[in-house]
Specification:
The chain is built from 6 helices and 8 strands. With 192 residues, the protein is of the alpha+beta class. A hairpin with a 2-residue loop joins strand 7 and strand 8. The radius of gyration is 17 Å and the shape is globular.
Amino acid sequence: MAMDAAELARGLFRVLETGDPILAAEVVGQDNHNREAAVSPSACAIPGPAGTLASGAWLRSAFSDLRFPFLGIVHDDDQVWVRLRMQGRHTGPFVRFRDGALDQAIPPTGRQIDFEQVHMLDIRDGQVVRHEALRDDVTMLGQLGVFPPAPAVALRMLAWRASGRAARAAVEVTALAADAAGLVQDNVQQSR
């Protein structure tokens, strides 16, 4: 049974929360484009389910108990607008990239994040084929103590960069995202 647009949106965020490759293949089109992949590991920009799985792995590597409770949803047959919250605990390095290279690595703070986002999804042939978002990243960075910079967090970030831990974290999260992207091909081939 085909999912309606609202169910597809819920499924997409469930994939980000869980990394379920079978659900990813069901809800994400092979030509899906995620405009938000610009600050994530390069595997997150891969079209289709693979990029979505990589994005989820990247987020879950930084935020345990990751969840996206919906606050509102508006849709028609080919577009969905979702207002939601991103919630979790910052228990792993949150590595952000620029042009595929390490931009910023925020060492784990143990702090909770809870901030609002709006996502726009295009639907075609019963799958998500395009994703854009308006996120309140400034609030998230404030909750992590990065903006404005809390002295202890700023010192830890500098120490991580100077010691090479930031670069190692970038390599690790890049590999994790790439591995997650490979999962979709393995599971789809096994289910055939």
